[in-house]
Amino acid sequence: MKLETINRQFAIDKQLIFIAGPGGLPVIQFKTRQASATVALQGAHVMDFQPRDASPVLWLSRLSHFKPGKAIRGGIPICWPWFGNHPADSSKPAHGFARNRLWEVTATHRLPNETLQLQMTLKNDTETRQLWPWHFSARLTVTVGHELEVELQIHNRDEKPATCSCALHNYFVISDINDTVITGLEGCRYIDKVADNQPRLQQGPLTITAETDRIYVDTRSDCLIDDCGWKRRIRIAKQGSRSTVVWNPWQEKAAAMADFGNDEYRSMVCVETANAADDRITLAPGEKHRLLTRISVEPLC
Ligand code: TA6
Q: Under a CB-based contact definition with an 8 Å cutoff, are residues 180 and 97 in contact?
């Protein structure tokens, strides 16, 4: 659909408009007195979010690709219908296909208090059914106010049960990984993906000093990223999730990724709202599941 047509149908004054973004990818630009944000139609991918009187909250690699079918490195990629590598077929794309496909805008709304809302949908087609043989519809709702709320709703439109795993793969920008502490996971069990998936227990607050790739299980808690360098706290609240993923590739893995600057591991950390590991979801025919992440920024006293 042409930008002119989609703007006529869904733009909200100058506060929510559709423009050609990086690499020519169509994006939705939010600009209100509350915040600014950008969402790519490809992958319904939230690329950035910045509350008024705060600095940017989401990290985006300076080397990210912006090409059709290629996941953007940073922001909030949607990992679905599987999280991580495909459980049975490594030839299938990591983290599923939702983040690589073009989603369709279905609605935009002005809510109270200068908050704007965008809804997008992804439906099955012959390509998706080759990758995942189910009829489904996915809906993403992005609500931009002083907080950012992202909700993924999955609807099993097939006649057979559907089991899937997913994550809102939040990338956060920080002053420096050495000045950052993550709390909210104390006492939680986790799967340590850099130690052969060993089960471990989180002792106290989490500081990151090496490659870190953990799936915390049985946790519904908010997570807090305390950034002492920028004297701010990022709060990640969630609904519909009992697992949280924390990831930082560190130096060697960052250098091995073409879309990740060698030094950029120091300025980012992922705290992901997930349905991963034994928190995967099984939907009966017609059943729906909602996964929601709510991101806000507070001063760090
Ligand atoms: O969420 C952590 C993780 O599963 C890591 O294992 C790493 O693969 C990361 O996601 C990024 O995956 P991607 O396919 O986007 O490079």
A: no
